[in-house]
Structure formats: C-alpha cells, structure tokens
Amino acid sequence: MLTSKAKYALRAMIDLAAQHGESPTFIGDISERQDIPRRFLENILLELRKHGLVSSQRGKFGGYALAHDPEEITFADVIRAIDGPLALTPCTSRTRYQQCEDCHEARCPLRGALGQVRDASAAILESTSLASALSPRRRGGKR
Questions:
Q1: Distance CA 66, CA 24 (A)
Q2: Among 75, 74, 114, 108, which Cα is nearest to 94's?
Q3: Which residues pair with 74 in a beta bridge?
Q4: Sequential pLDDT tens for the chain (143 residues)
Q5: pTM of this structure
Q6: What is the secondary structure of 47-115 as a DSSP string?
Q7: Non-local CB neighbours of 57 within 8 Å, separated by 6+ positions
Q8: Are residues 93 and 43 located together in one domain of the fold?
Q9: Are residues 102 and 59 in the same domain?
Q10: 66 and 21 share a domain?
Q11: Domain housing 93
C-alpha cells in the first residue's frame, strides 16, 4: 500500500509541476493548496531534494521547484525516493534486490506472481509523468 508520505509527495510534486517555469514555490503555498501539514511537507521536500527531484532556493524569493521537466519525472521516481522499491517483496525488487530471509527462491510459490505484480505496477508508474497527471486545462488544453 502506498504510504501517506508517498501520497503527499506525489501531490506536492504535481503541484510543483503545475507551477513549473515560474518562480520557486513557497512551502506554505503548497501546504495550503494540497492540505499537507507543513512540517510533514518540509521533510518530504528535503528527501525529494536529496534524490535530485526538486531544487530549493533560499531567501525572500526562495522556495521549491522541480529539478527536471515534469515530463521527465515519473510517479515511480517519486515513490522510490520516498518509500523505496516498488516491489512487494525484497526478492522481486529490480532496484534493491535482497533474498528473503525465510524463503528459498527456487521453490518459492509467491515469487513468480509477485514479480508479475511488480512488473505491471512499475510499467504504469514509470510511464506516468507528473505532466501527464495534470488536468488538460492546467496543461494548456493538451491531452
């Protein structure tokens, strides 16, 4: 299940995508528009910055902005930065594979199905960009 932190991160990133190309966005504005507790949002944005997905600028005209074009940042990028691998089990992760402590992979009845789940969900999340999540009206009428 997607954590609240990852859901908030996706909402904040879509908000920043809607502001892309303008001056940096104040954290308070994102917090208010997206109904995300400010302190929680601060931690989320720091983590996203650490992963190179957002940039920050200090000062009177500071704030946060996307570090890349909204077309280049996917839901998978955001979820991996916040929650880690997309896979349901460590042994089916492509980015952080680990053998499960209580399992023998060659005989595991779960691994095949859970690998398919990972592949299907990763395909969707990796093909969904922040830009594609914006409504057609917010993107200038393009679909």
A1: 9
A2: 114
A3: 129
A4: 889 999 999 999 999 999 998 999 999 999 999 999 999 999 999 999 999 999 998 877 789 999 999 999 999 999 999 998 888 777 777 777 767 777 777 777 877 788 888 899 999 999 999 999 986 645 444 43
A5: 0.84
A6: HHHHTTSEEEE-STT-EEEESS-TTT-BHHHHHHHHH--SSSSGGG-SSS----TT--GGG-SSHHHHH
A7: 24, 63, 64, 65
A8: no
A9: no
A10: yes
A11: 86-130
Same domain? 33 vs 90: no
What are phi and psi for residue 39, nearest 5 degrees?
A: -65, -40
Token representation of residue 94:
């492509």
| CA-based nearest residue to 20, from 59, 69, 60, 79 | 69
Does 29 map to a domain? yes
Structure tokens at 100: 């499960």
